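[step 3/7] fold_predict: job queued, chain A
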Amino acid sequence: MRDLLDHIAAKWTTLVLLALEQEPRRFNTLLRMLPDISRRMLTQSLRDLERGGFIDRTVFPTKPPAVQYALTPMGHSLMGPIRSLIGWAEANETALNAARARYDAAQA
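[step 4/7] structure written:
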C-alpha cells in the first residue's frame, strides 16, 4: 500500500496522468503540456507509470519511430479518485490558504 501511495503521490505522476486523461499523447506534447518538467524527469515518470501498469507505451514503425503514451484501464480507473482529490482541494482552497497564513504568522 505504501509503495503505491508513494508512487501516486510523486511530484509529476498526477500531472502526467491528467495530461493523458483525454487522449494518448506523444513525448514532446507531454513536455509542452508540463513546461516545468525536465526531459529526464518526464522520461522517468513515464517509465514508472508504465511499470506500474497505469500507462501503455506504443512505438509506431515510422522513421524516426513515433512513441505514444496512453492510459490503461487501470490508469483510467485511477482518474476518479484523482478528480475527487482535486475537487476537495478546490473546495477547501480558502481554508487551506488561511491555515497556512496562520501557521506562517505564528512562526514569525
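[step 5/7] annotate
The CA atoms of residues 55 and 71 lie 4 Å apart.
The first strand starts at residue 25 and ends at 26.
exit 0
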